[in-house]
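As a next step, we paired sequence with structure tokens, yielding the entry below.
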Amino acid sequence: MANLTFVANTVSSTGTIPLDQIPQEVKDDAEEVYKVLKTNHGRMKVDFPSVGELNAYIANLKAYCEQRPEGAIRFRKSPTRNLPKTSMEFRITDLETPEEATTNGIRQAVEEVKTTTKK
């Protein structure tokens, strides 16, 4: 006989988990990681007993970052490098880091020069 287990969807029909359904522990984790990585370069690692728990954590963490009341922040899962399937490394940063802002500014300036020289 098969051992069946019901697994509820972690995402609502609107495509994201409502903010009030995200566990407070996940919200606290997101804020703590964001605060630590604001002043320290690196990434965080998290381990779970099962892949399902890891996937649920990712879904909740990503949904919180997108809906954060103080302003959205970016969740980025790092590439897996010989980690168990129940582990991940990740970062939580501003939507646009200072380095990205500099790069985007340079790209805009180059495009403006291209446009100006074509006239």
